[in-house]
Amino acid sequence: MKPRLDKTLTALATIAIMAGVAPALAQDAQPGEGTSVTLAQPTWDTGWFQTEIFRQMLQELGYEVGAPMTLDNPAFYQSVGFGDVDLWVDGWFPIHDPYRQAFEGSAEIVDNFTTGGALEGYLVDKATAESMGITSLEDFKRDDVKEAFDRDGDGRADMVACPPGWGCETVIEHHLDAYDLRDHVNPVKAGYPAAMADAVAAYESGEPILFYTWTPNWTVNELVPGEDVVWIEVPEVSLPEEIASLADAATREGVEGCVNDPCRLGFPANSIVSVANSAFLEQNPAVRVLLEAAEVELTDVYAQNARMNAGDSDVEAHAAEWIAENRAAVDGWLDAARSSAL
Asked: Which residue from 118, 246, 277, 310 has the fewest beta carbons nearer than 10 Å?
């Protein structure tokens, strides 16, 4: 019996030692050492904050990560499918569903990186909406409404829309046709930040404004729904064929600042997720674990976007501050990622 007892005691001692050593090994592990990561970010700068947070966390894991590549949606999804880009944390689904065919089978959606529901829709300054009885895009067929919102003199209401290549552009273009608005609404597709800055200036001068936006975005900090602006509805839910099955999700209850409840926004609510090349994830399990574990609250993204819009554009510093303020949570995510590589 003694040899078996000795083996048992030896095994128990080994377990006890490893229990103490494993955490230290996990904290010291650098699973990314010697591996470079090609990280992408979208052309909309409101997504750069979470991208930079993730970049800095990858660096803490030992990965070599340079400045992110700024790409339009089609370019990113094709590139991540081919493996020319490893990942981004700015996938918007279901509005990015039309791009699935470019990456499915070779890249994948991993998990939510930013928590909370992401909304999209059309807004009008509250004062004009109330004084003119504007509750829907249908109201922009009225001559008095078109005249009030016509800033360039072409006889149509001007609306800040989405630049070419953005997922929202596809839906807005569909809406213009579905609701017969081509002769009534002029979608302004210039750079979104500049176009919105112009709209904010117009609002501050007392002019009517109509614009598309999404959350998280600095616009809803600058122009607060329910106080400065209101979400208006679409006449009926109509979506592009690729996402037509999501029509029920385009009406939401409890939307703060909407003209009605439930609110027929016309866009399905989105989740902001990570999309990564599958071969890259297979070779780097620590990255998958980090993507699955890490979270950034929408309220934190709002706050950073507001700082950036106010002129403080040091996204790298903002991300470093966020990591420092959330150090305990970040260390937990990093330890989980390191442990996956042991």
From this structure: 310
